[in-house]
């Protein structure tokens, strides 16, 4: 106490009364106690931490996803008093995925859902259960550790301390797991188990990563592998691609021995909605590789970001560069400025819904928004390819955002095969406009294999039909399909798959580009593809894709505006599609939809698509299927419609193969009519625009002419004015000269008078005074003369 008193005394001086001193004593005492507490707590935590082993996982790296998935499955979260609830978690088992492994946790959630459904029934529940209780899309919810909270989990005889936080500098999420142990074996075990569980989940799935603005790869989605058999391409194409990619992945040593960079590029080009993205998806699944997508038209992409991204691509993966032609020339719509007038928008727009199953709301990339891309036609621009920066810099998009894309051709080329580029990846690039690519970009070594995608052939149409509808005797249909298809023009089919034009073989070694030859094996494989339809999960257009619904209904509203034309786009319900074409496209979806009587039912553009008929189609016998498929194919004109649009049509007749085959001709007719109508409208618009441009040009010319005439007249006026002024001056001068003359005359007269007078004075002295007057007059005269001279000078 005395010590405290001695400390406080100097502060309060001699004036401090006892209450102030006591107060100060308390402050000092409190401070001392708090400091002691902090020091001891910090010492204790140091002491405890010295026994802990801690592993840190950054969200930028894959183990973070393993651990998050593992954590989300821990039963501890069921009991935890603080947790984060999410519907979007990392990894294949994330809730956004439809997990094939039905876990305890899922069961628990389902039980709760049932209780809630019972307590609070909604019209949506009724509608759902009435239709398809099994097919009801489930959004899984999981619990995860909260930020900046330490959770304790028991794992294999150890207590783990789990902490999730963010790095101060980058804002990147970090997961720290600490354990009291002598060696880090338990942590290794944990990571390996998480990895194993993650991989077990991903056997049937592929992971999709998107490039983000910081130059990192961000896990975006996990998708079911798409069976290759679901991709309908002309014979031999996909099989050859699979062979080529597999061969490449096996040949690392071969490449290393010859000093050739271990990279391979595939360029998929052709019409929209022909299966480019779908093929890449299916191939990645077949090869067990994840997909890393970078959209070169992203506003933030720059040489540096791309270089960083390429350096961070894992060794074995599919690297997808979308819309390669749009990398340097950006436009707000895919058809903006398209001068070729390919008219694909009409077709694909009209067939809305085809790509619906591929869409992934929230991401604008064409890889996911199958329908959005196919309906929009090809990304195009009237400018063509240019490596110049000036054309794209400082442009402003229609949404008012500054276009910051500063990617250059050399930057892209460096990123693809520069020193920092990763090896072992399969590079896939897609474009709708091959002609716009710079040759440097598509040369061998960068793009080793080119695959052309065309509109659907009749053979493809038939295969697509067979894929759609189940058959009673699958195996028999396989063989019959092969024999029926025996007369396929293989030469023609294979013409779409090219090796790159020039193939430099380095050091005389193996030719790097592949030349594909059809084999019977390919044909067998293809037959299997047509029969695998039953196993293939059919896309669920109504429930899974908001893009699908929006584009379809917008198309329907648009078509209904076009003077009552009945577009098949909007003939949405398969249940009502037995007749060739529905007569009232815009109203049918409303009346069919059980939810349509509710909120917003008057606005068809925002209505969900009508529910599809839940009744599964009866499997057809092989003969009927063959007949219907043939009929369907015969009704489809060769290479006129994209596969996506045919798929869209079949989706509308999902449960009615007969109707699909019978109405195809009517559909084709109406589609053609609509295409023609759109074409006509486009032409009319172009003519109008041309006339408008012409009018504006003439107006401008007229204005220019008037302006020039005005300028000319003004000039003339100026000249006249100047002349006038000159004339006036001259007149003035003349006047003055006249005055001068008059005065001179006067003076002369006066002089004469004076002389006469002088002569007279000599005779008469009386005249003296008179002569004085005269001399005065003379001096006046002289003055006047002087003044006149001055004026004249002026
Ligand atoms: N050859 C095909 N086989 C099977 N389905 C196809 C085929 N072509 C297109 N589709 C279907 O059409 C939709 C759109 O296909 P996809 O996105 O693969 O076309 P794309 O050629 O990549 O189009 P875009 O160039 O516009 O991106 C998908 O739902 C896909 O299932």
From TrEMBL:
Composition skew (Pro residues), residue ranges: 607-617
Pfam families: AAA, AAA_lid_BCS1, BCS1_N
PROSITE patterns tied to this protein: AAA (PS00674)
Cell compartment(s), UniProt: Mitochondrion inner membrane
Main subcellular location: mitochondrion
Catalytic reactions of this protein: ATP + H2O = ADP + phosphate + H(+)
Protein family membership: Belongs to the AAA ATPase family. BCS1 subfamily.
Protein name (Swiss-Prot/TrEMBL): P-loop containing nucleoside triphosphate hydrolase protein
Species of provenance: Crepidotus variabilis
């Amino acid at each position: 106490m005395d010590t405290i008193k001695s400390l406080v005394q100097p502060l309060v001086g001699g004036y401090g009364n006892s209450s102030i001193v006591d107060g100060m004593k308390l402050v000092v005492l409190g401070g001392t106690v708090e400091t002691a507490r902090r020091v001891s707590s910090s010492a204790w935590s140091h002491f405890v931490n010295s026994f802990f082993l801690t592993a840190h996982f950054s969200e930028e790296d894959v183990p973070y996803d393993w651990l998050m998935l593992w954590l989300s499955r821990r039963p501890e979260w069921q009991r935890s008093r603080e947790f984060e609830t999410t519907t979007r978690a990392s990894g294949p088992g994330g809730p956004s995925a439809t997990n094939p492994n039905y876990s305890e946790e899922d069961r628990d959630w389902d039980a709760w859902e049932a209780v809630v459904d019972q307590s609070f029934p909604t019209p949506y529940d009724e509608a759902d259960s009435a239709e398809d209780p099994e097919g009801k899309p489930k959004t899984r919810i999981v619990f995860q550790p909260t930020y900046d909270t330490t959770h304790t989990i028991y794992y294999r005889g150890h207590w783990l301390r789990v902490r999730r936080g963010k790095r101060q500098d980058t804002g990147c999420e970090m997961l720290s797991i600490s354990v009291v142990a002598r060696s880090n074996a338990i942590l290794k075990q944990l990571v390996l188990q998480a990895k194993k569980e993650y991989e077990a989940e991903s056997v049937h799935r592929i992971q999709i990563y998107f490039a983000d603005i910081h130059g990192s790869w961000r896990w975006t989605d996990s998708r079911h592998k798409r069976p290759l058999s679901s991709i309908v391409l002309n014979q031999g194409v996909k099989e050859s691609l699979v062979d080529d990619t597999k061969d490449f992945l096996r040949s690392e040593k071969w490449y290393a021995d010859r000093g050739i960079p271990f990279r391979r590029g595939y360029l998929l080009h052709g019409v929209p909605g022909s299966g480019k993205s779908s093929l890449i998806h299916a191939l990645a699944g077949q090869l067990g590789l994840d997909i890393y997508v970078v959209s070169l038209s992203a506003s933030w992409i720059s040489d540096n970001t791309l270089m960083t991204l390429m350096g961070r691509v894992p060794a074995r993966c599919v690297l997808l560069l979308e819309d390669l032609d749009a990398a340097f020339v950006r436009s707000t719509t895919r058809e903006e400025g398209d001068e070729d007038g390919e008219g694909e928008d009409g077709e694909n727009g009209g067939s809305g819904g085809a790509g619906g199953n591929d869409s992934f709301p929230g991401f604008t990339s064409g890889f996911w928004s199958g329908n959005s891309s196919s309906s929009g036609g090809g990304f195009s621009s009237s400018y063509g390819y240019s490596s110049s920066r000036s054309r794209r810099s400082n442009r402003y998009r229609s949404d008012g955002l500054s276009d910051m894309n500063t990617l250059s051709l050399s930057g892209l080329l460096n990123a693809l095969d520069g020193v920092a580029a990763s090896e072992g990846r399969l590079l896939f690039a897609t474009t709708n406009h091959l002609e716009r690519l710079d040759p440097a970009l598509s040369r061998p070594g960068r793009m080793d294999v080119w695959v052309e995608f065309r509109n659907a052939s009749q053979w493809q149409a038939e295969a697509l039909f067979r894929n759609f509808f189940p058959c009673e005797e699958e195996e028999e249909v396989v063989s019959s399909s092969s024999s029926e298809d025996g007369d396929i023009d293989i030469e023609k089919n294979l013409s779409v798959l090219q090796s790159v034009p020039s193939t430099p073989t380095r050091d005389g070694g193996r030719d790097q580009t592949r030349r594909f030859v059809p084999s019977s094996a390919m044909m067998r494989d293809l037959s299997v593809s047509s029969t695998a339809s039953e196993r293939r999960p059919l896309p669920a257009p109504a429930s899974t894709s908001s893009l699908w619904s929006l584009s379809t209904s917008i198309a329907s509203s648009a078509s209904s505006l076009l003077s009552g034309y009945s577009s098949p786009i909007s003939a949405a319900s398969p249940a009502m599609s037995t007749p060739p074409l529905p007569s009232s496209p815009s109203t049918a979806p409303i009346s069919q939809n059980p939810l349509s009587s509710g909120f917003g039912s008057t606005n068809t553009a925002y209505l969900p698509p009508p529910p599809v008929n839940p009744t599964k189609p009866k499997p057809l016998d092989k003969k009927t299927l063959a007949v219907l498929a043939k009929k369907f194919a015969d009704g489809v004109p060769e290479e006129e419609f994209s596969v996506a649009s045919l798929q869209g049509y079949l989706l509308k007749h999902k449960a009615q193969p007969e109707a699909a085959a019978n109405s195809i001709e009517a559909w084709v007719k109406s589609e053609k009519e609509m295409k023609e109508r759109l074409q006509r409208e486009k032409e009319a618009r172009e003519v109008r625009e041309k006339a408008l441009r012409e009018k504006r040009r003439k107006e401008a010319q007229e204005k220019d002419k008037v302006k020039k005439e005005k300028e000319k007249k003004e000039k003339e006026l100026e000249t006249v004015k100047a002349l006038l002024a000159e004339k006036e001056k001259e007149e003035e001068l003349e006047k003055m000269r006249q005055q001068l003359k008059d005065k001179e005359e006067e003076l002369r007269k006066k002089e004469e008078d004076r002389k006469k007078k002088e002569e007279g004075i000599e005779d008469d002295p009386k005249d003296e005074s008179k002569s004085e007057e005269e001399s005065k007059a003379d001096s006046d005269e002289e003055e006047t003369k002087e003044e006149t001279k001055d004026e004249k000078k002026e």
